[in-house]
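Running log. JK asked me to keep both predictions on one page so they can be read side by side. First protein, sequence followed by its tokens:
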Amino acid sequence: MNNASKITNKGVAISLMVTSVVIVLMMIFGVIMLLNQGNVVQISPQLFYKVMTIHGTGMIGIAALGGSAIMWYYLSTYIHLNAKIFFANLLLSLIGVVFILIAIFVFHFSDGWTFLFPLPAYSANLYGKTGALLFLFGMLLLGIGYLLMYFYLAARFKKEYGGLLKSLGWDVILGKKKYGPPSSVVAATMVIITNSTAILAGATVIVGSFINIINPAFSMDPMLAKHLTYAFGHIFANCTIYMAVIAVYEILSNYTGRPWKTNKVFLIAWNCSTIFTLMIYTHHLLMDFAVPKWMLIIGQVFSYANGLPVMVVTAYGALMIVYHSAIKWDFASSMMFLAMFGWVAGAVPAIIDATIVINHIMHNTKWVPGHFHTYMGMGVVAMIFGFMYYFNKTEGTQKEKSLDKLAIVTYFIFFTGLTGSFLYAGKISAPRRWAEHLPEWTASDQVGALCGIFIIAAALVFTIRFIVGLKKIGSNTTDKSLKSAS
């Protein structure tokens, strides 16, 4: 293993270790909220909203860290990358998380991950400015880290492929070439374009809120601030799976010996998703009467459309690539395949919620966490856990155990139960983001909490097995040569 590979693997291993531990912690926070809503335990409303803030912020942020580790690991097999950039993003992310944790649990910031303007100013008036400023500064540091990584990758793609349009396969779409860059490069290009836009939108509203807290005479238009906030949050959350899905492409191709061809259909799908992902955050604004009608129509129509290009191409491609392939089903391949189910299943209630007449009734209920936990827990997080095993197996000598198979079955069965309890709660109009629930809502909370306990047990198995397996990294000394970029 060459020095560059060793440094990259070290960064990826650290990121995945942090990711897995924090995921378990965020799951514990989620169960605490469900137990409180189900009247099994009782915590103060103030503590509930602190936990809610860190649960939402932490889970999306840590999924992005895990996804970026996957993306960097595979991109480094196609092009030479400077590992210092990856470590810089990791360091800024960790520092940002420390600021956020201090803001929430020391200075009582509890406005939720959305930090909608002017809520941070109200929080500053109630608990003091320090908490709100630390939270916003921590979020800004996270964004700076990812922008640094994305801009660096954009520069590398320009040098290797001739620019972002070519790394999105426009040469193929225009008929100049038969196949485009590797699927990992295509997916990464989409993420660079969309998530850089999202982070810049988020940075705008964060800086505006920051200035408003220091100098209340400065203000922003609340509707503009809401658009910027949801553009940031929705796109950033979406990009976690677009980074993680690279593992699906690479691992299933590796296991079947069949390359994932980046043909014209594949590339058109990713280009469409690039455009749609930038537009569909507006389905979060369907209840806002002041939003122009044309924008609401865009939110509905393109929320429908966004579920089709990449998801259908990837899901169908996953089925075709394993069909009659004699694939060996182990932990990694099983998790990747099941994660595709989680992604598709999570998109269905999301598309339903994007219908305006349904959105007016369901959007502020637990239906939305139901769709998001399906997408995140059985999609993004499953891909990360699957890649963790693959990483230990490929870079080290870890072997699968029967406990791993039991953990997979437990994870998906009880995650289905958890998301089902959320969707049912949405059906009976149980509100989301409420610390206290009426008696008729608590049964679904209790079922969700019980499922969550089993999910945590399975996630602990994944995490402990991964950390123990890290001791074997480096025993596999076979050099990994760069794959052909053609």
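And the second, directly underneath as requested:
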Amino acid sequence: MKRLLRKLFLLGLLAAGAVVAYGASGFLAARSEALALRDRADALIAAEQGGAALGPGRQAQLLEVQDPGFLRHGGVDLISPGAGATTITQALAQRLDAGPLPPEIDRIRQIGFAFGLETRLEKAQILALWLDEAEMGRGPEGMMTGFFDTARTVYGKPPQELTQEEYLSLVAVLIAPGRYSLQAPGPALEERRDRIALLVSGKCRPAGHDDVWLEGCDQS
């Protein structure tokens, strides 16, 4: 029995070590790619495709929905109401460092990658990259990518020129881009947009950390 327990203990140590090593590999990969990512982000910001170019108050609205603790956390948020399991930095890590292993395993490396991004890039740079990488639902030629590009494809104008309803529709698809179509919005997308409108107007709050679907804003 003692021998079995010792083997289990050693196996546990090996597994923990493998997890740490895999996460560390993501951290180091992000730091090694940081210079190129910083240059790309700065180019996007210079081209007015960063968070500040979304329009007055609209970066704050986006963050309140997508990652309410973005400006405070270091890559992972286990506290903020409505944050859910994936921050903007983690979502960017998933786009930049998608691996061949099952998602639940690759997530370990991606968390490390997110921490690495946070140590090398400014928040404005991370946000600009994520906006450029974000999946935005079905378009005329398949799945669309990029918040600014999608605004022009669907509405023919940049985000800062959109109506509030148009802008919140863009924000609404981010949670499930495979489910929604901005070109043919249906009741589900409209309901999501309406909940977001209540949230950003201060009329409701998420029910808890995992309330990414804004059940706390259900007015039905």
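Observation for JK regarding the second prediction: The two ends are 58 Å apart (CA to CA).
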